[in-house]
Amino acid sequence: MPTIRDVARTLNLSITTVSRALDGYGDVSKETRQRVIETAQAMGYVPNRAARQLRRQRTDTIGYIVPAEKPQFADPFFAEFVAGLGDEAASTNYDLLVSTAPPDSPEEQDLYRRWIQGGKVDGVIINRTRLSDWRVNFLRESKLPFTCLERSLDQGEEFLGVETDIKDGYQELLGHLTAQGHSRIAFIGADASLKVQYDRLRAFQQALTSLDIQPQANLIVEGDLTPEGGYQAMLRLLALDQPPTAVVCVNDLTAIGVIHAAHDNHCVIGRDLAIAGFDGVADSAHTQPPLTTLDQPVYAIARTLARLLLQAIAREKIVQRVITIKPTLLIRASSGGKR
Amino acid sequence: MPTIRDVARTLNLSITTVSRALDGYGDVSKETRQRVIETAQAMGYVPNRAARQLRRQRTDTIGYIVPAEKPQFADPFFAEFVAGLGDEAASTNYDLLVSTAPPDSPEEQDLYRRWIQGGKVDGVIINRTRLSDWRVNFLRESKLPFTCLERSLDQGEEFLGVETDIKDGYQELLGHLTAQGHSRIAFIGADASLKVQYDRLRAFQQALTSLDIQPQANLIVEGDLTPEGGYQAMLRLLALDQPPTAVVCVNDLTAIGVIHAAHDNHCVIGRDLAIAGFDGVADSAHTQPPLTTLDQPVYAIARTLARLLLQAIAREKIVQRVITIKPTLLIRASSGGKR
DNA sequence: TGAGTTTTCCAAAACGTTTTGGTAAAATCA
DNA sequence: TGATTTTACCAAAACGTTTTGGAAAACTCA
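Structure tokens for the assembled complex are given below, as produced in the milestone run.
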């Protein structure tokens, strides 16, 4: 593995000149630069990352820790999210470090500590933000750039990231459902400490009341963002005296479990029961029947988060600190909309 | 951010002693070690990774480049795979670097070059191995430890990784299908340069002939491992004079597309048409009807690959260089098996 | 011509660790 | 007691870059 020293030696130049030639500084002549670039290429010289990092005091790496309850559980949301982060990072020659840790666990704290205090990453992206989130406080204290999807309640002006404005989306979705004649509409949510749960449940309830439907407490149940959670929650709803005729789920994965439960209980989805999700992950188009959902461009959101982060790291002027995205309603067969 | 120098200064000790105390060397007294550990902890000292890497000449990081044709495409297989790698890495305090690049593209070459020559990773994992794969040659030349899922044809004895033995699996699957009365059985595969396609198609054909069914060329079509590819391939099969009554797919995602196409063409899956997949990704349990598939434990395989790699990096003696896994047949409703 | 300016290069310091090759002091032994 | 071993520590080198602060050579201009 040739070092910059080897390149310098073969060219009879100083290390400095080689370094500056490769970095495109103005104080090296056209010809030498050319020679340097060629020989470096020919010798297969690639700068050692650790040395560069140590000197430059940055790592050209951003980090993301998947907040997965159970590690082996593969959420398509995360897959798209990670792909977006990775691609945006790669487009600027940055790398993406990935790990998983259960939310609010000691492992999570440990990982963040190691990465951040040890200078392993220049910045991080967080999602599944909690209403009150130690991560944002920790990151703020350590003065490390970070962006997040969904603002925690601790964050005021300094928030940098993406927020989804779901009011109109839920309004539209519930309009659609009531137009189909539904009025007993349930909501399957997630852990109450999550910002998405907070936002989406509230938007759901507001939309409901604006349509003159009284929200009913027993139609609001808790899942855990997985198909299994959705399945179990649906069973609980079906056991009610008056089960709902429509179910709105906090995410698509939950809805997939609900579809499954409905099938197992011989409901005809789209006729007996309307089901809607949230996210618009690729899978949702391939459920049977295809899932009505509030589609948000996860991949694009991830790229945006990464781009914002990279700008923050580079101390670029950021025109728009918080980017708001509105999900779009995709009406598919699961809500009896189209066939 | 305190450095080791700061810790040494506050303790009136040398840098050396602090370093050795923290690393657990024997030549530092019990009491000093205790003092060092405590103050380091109290000061929030975390060793700088870049410096450590530079000195130790290793990065405590392994890499994986997702071989994704289109970046925004989120394959649940990859999600599980990455989760497995990440968890195994984390269990040894290693980190996982992730990126995506289209197979056999210049970006792919660039990434591997940067990571490996630049010493950004201590080893890599590769999958979606091609029959002849420049990556294995490149890695072999650069003498970097690596493990792979599926052995390319270039690899002889030195192969280190996981292979799936699918003969029995296909035998069993096709036995199941013929027992249901099927004899016109199609295969939807992938790019011919992929090792999995090579293996699985061959196993499929062998199983077929062993059951006294003549493989028919027009029942073997090519997909691209995505639902869309599966959908299109299925349309082509349905357009035949004599469409197949059963379809075996090279992976679950393809099968999901096939299910979709069958639905759109009003075939009743499980009755008119049997469908089977391969992989056993979480999604496959939630299709409608649930998908019959050859289940391989993707998460566990990924962990195994990572563990092997870490052992290779640590130059441990590796007892078993190639670990063979047999998929198990999961019979579900999509093949008319159970209800 | 000689003073200033520009061009092109370079030596040395720094980044924060780990490791090598010690050395005093204390403990052990004859 | 003096020689030897063990214990507990440390100074300095090294890892491979980037950057600082020049400095010689070439050019410009009066």
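Residues 13-17, 20, 26-29, 32, 51, 53-57 of chain A lie near DNA strand C (CB under 10 Å from a C1'). DSSP finds twelve helices and twelve strands in chain A. Further analysis is deferred to the final report.
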